[in-house]
Every structure is written in C-alpha cells, then in structure tokens.
C-alpha cells in the first residue's frame, strides 16, 4: 500500500522503492481474493438495497454509504498499488490520498452507523424525532467530505520544505482524529449498547415471568415467549460483530502508524503486508456481516436464493421435457 499520510520530501523515493519490490505469490493471491470479495460483496449490497423498496430504511442508507466507502477501499488499496507503483509516471502521492480518504470514509461511516443504532436502542423515542432524512443525509455527507478534505489538504504544502513542521503536526492531528479516537469511541459505545441490551433482556424476562406467575393455568402454547427474537438484540449483535472485526483489522494499522510517525519502534516489512491485507479484509467482511446478521437483508438474500433455485429447477425440468 502507498505510504501513510506523513508525507515528506523523501516520499516519492519511498514509493518508487516500494514499486520495485516484488510481492510473494501468496500475498498477491490473498490480496486479489480479498479485493475481489470486497468489490463483489459491496456492489451486491448497494444494488440489493437500491432495488428493494422494503430495504429503504434509515439504517440501510448508512449501510449503502459504508458499502461505497468499502468498495473504494477494495478498488484502491491492493489493485491501486499493483497497477500504480510499478509505473514511473504514476502519481503516487495522489494514490495515497485516495486510499486513505476511502479508508477514513469507511471509518466515519461505521461511526455514523453505530451512532444510528446506539440512539435507536438507548433512546428509541428520541430516535424517531431526531433521525430525520435531512440529518441522515448530513451525517453521510460529513462522513465523506471530512476524509477527502483532510486527505487532500497536504497537497497544498507537501513539496514545500518550509512546511515540514506543519506537515508533521498535521499528521499527528490526522492520526488522533481518524485512527485513535474512532476505535476507542466505537468500543465504548458498543459496550454500552451491550449493557443496555442485557438490561432490556433481563427486564423483559422479569415481565414474562410475572405474567406466567399471574396466569398459571395458561398453556405452554399461549404463554408469553421470553426468548422471542428481539430487534434490539439482533442490532447489537450485528454492530458488535462489525466493530470487533474493524478493531482487530485496524489495530495493526494503528501500531504501524505510531512506528512510522513517532519513530518509536522498528517494524519488519511483513507488518506492512499484514496491514494491507487486514484493511482489505475489513472491507470484504462487512457485506457478509450484513447478509448473515442483519435480519431484513438476510431475508431478502434468502428470497433471492429461493428464486434462483426455483428458476434453476424450472429450467432443468423444461430441458428434460424437451428431450
């Protein structure tokens, strides 16, 4: 992957050196596999939500925005490096800016999605009034405008040696705002959502138990079901899975950023390879999490699979009849 955003006067030479290095075959295979899964999966989610009117919900618009960001990551990180770095005329710094703009957009869109679910679970009545269409659009626009603005600002002074100190301070700012604060905030918010979900589950179980006590003659078929699927619970499981995988994948990126920017440690070249693959893996994982863990999308995927199987069986039957 192209160098981090701590650009300096040696950046171009660093990129050219990276372009001259050959990747091991297994890295190329994994990189293209994860990139392909990310491109296919995120395109599928975008088209599915756009084409199904029943999926046109507030949360799903955040998912569409996140899928576009992950699609940008899948297209720019590994394929971008593969095709650009070996070419001498390639604008390496521009490539790096696009890569990190999409990565930061993915981070902020995940934050927006988590915030949406947190308000819906913690303050459901406030959520109905607060999360209007205009606010959803404002959050999504902010999640895109901020990363692209901050990723391309360095181009104004990147080649001016007098601004090296300014660039260094700017890099510290970017590291804190886009790489330190989001993971910590996501973990804290998700932990609080888990606490609220457990609290609601205990309260619901207590109410159901009280109803059973007050109606001892109720048959098992008519008794309230304590374990009925809960929308808040499924939302928490869905968000928790995405956040945990995000933190796992970005932990190597944060460690590598600290080594590169603060010069506090040496790191093997293999760590950069792991960083690239994990960043792509995060974008490739998200569509599968939507399909397996988000109930409305899971339902539509099952419907598509049923239709596909039915059409295949019908075609096979018609071919047999023609014989």
UniProtKB/TrEMBL annotation:
Q: Which InterPro entries match?
A: GPCR_Rhodpsn, GPCR_Rhodpsn_7TM, TAAR
Q: Name one GO molecular function term.
A: G protein-coupled receptor activity
One short Pfam family name for this protein?
7tm_1
Give the record's GO CC terms.
Answer: plasma membrane
The record's annotation in SUPFAM superfamilies points to:
Family A G protein-coupled receptor-like
Localisation per UniProt entry? Cell membrane
Keywords, A to Z, come to: Cell membrane, G-protein coupled receptor, Membrane, Receptor, Transducer, Transmembrane, Transmembrane helix
G-protein coupled receptors family 1 profile domain ranges (all copies): 41-290
Where are its TM segments located?
A: 26-49, 61-80, 92-115, 136-158, 170-195, 236-264, 276-293
The record's section on PANTHER family has: G-PROTEIN COUPLED RECEPTORS FAMILY 1 PROFILE DOMAIN-CONTAINING PROTEIN (PTHR24249:SF372), HISTAMINE RECEPTOR-RELATED G-PROTEIN COUPLED RECEPTOR (PTHR24249)
Identify its protein family. Answer: Belongs to the G-protein coupled receptor 1 family.
**Name of protein:** G-protein coupled receptors family 1 profile domain-containing protein
Q: Which species expresses this protein natively?
A: Desmophyllum pertusum
